[in-house]
Amino acid sequence: MEKWVHGETHEFIDWLDTDGNVINASDGGIIYAEGKYHWYGQALRDLPYDHDGRRNGGVGITGVVMYESEDLLHWRYEGVILACSDDPESELYAPMRFERPKIIYNEKTKQYVLWCHYIRYPGEHGVAAGQGEAGVAVCDKVNGSYRWLGTTRPIDDLGAVRDCTLYKDQDGSAYFIYDRDISTVLEEMNRCLYIVKLSEDYCSWTTEYRRIESAYHREAPAIVYKDGYYYMITSGLTGWNYNQAKYFRSRELLGEWEDMGDPCIEDTEHTTFCTQTTAIFRVEGREDCFIHMAERHNHQHSFLHCSYIWLPIHFGEDHTMSISYLKEWTL
To answer: What span, in angstroms and rounded, lies between the C-alpha atoms of 286 and 117?
Structure first.
């Protein structure tokens, strides 16, 4: 691959690794370490979403995998960094979910810390214990075998964890941002985004947190900082179906967040270009070059053949952000 190719907004295009295999790293992220980019995500199955028939390709039997690259275009498979288990007594017994895994590095402890949205066997969402938790794992190497520390629910046990992300601030402090679900049953949809400050080792949560009132009924958060503002892109709550993106901005992570509307330019169908946000990362050596990672979930046919949509973010002088669709592009 010599450039990022997306095709039309309804197309599914496979991205291949250097061995010619389909890159299978769903809803993960990018971390730059040891002079290379590392792309990680949950490996999904070559199946559609078929809840009643138990053919759910949205659950995993492999775990979290990782790829590496020097140029963001050519990706070598590094292997499984957090594996599912075949032991029925294990918390990681498959099929299960490591949804939206995110990794940050802690300079004090010299460890890479992974948080995810964990769902136990057989991988079905719910509000009961084990059906909506935050999972934590650590490793001394970015591409090593991560040690599972267990699960938790920030703030209290009443709030199930849904889509989540991590953010590491300029001062080295870290935050867990997640869709907190306090529904008594899923249909009641009492959900809102929260941001929780983590402990110094990034492995547990503190009592410092904020409910982001303006981000009610939002999920799939991704945060970036630029010129004095934090920006957070989110999606609505429509499951695997596409919906309209919305972004928020704030001067402080635990401050008030302002609803800024849809960042997608000329998205006439209001579907985030038929994608859902995954993460945002900065290109090394280019201070103002940020890439919005999104995924076109192929839930009706095969989760293995989802499409990755990477687009540059534009920041305006009035402290706004926008994203335009490109069928193909390079740096």
So the answer is: 31
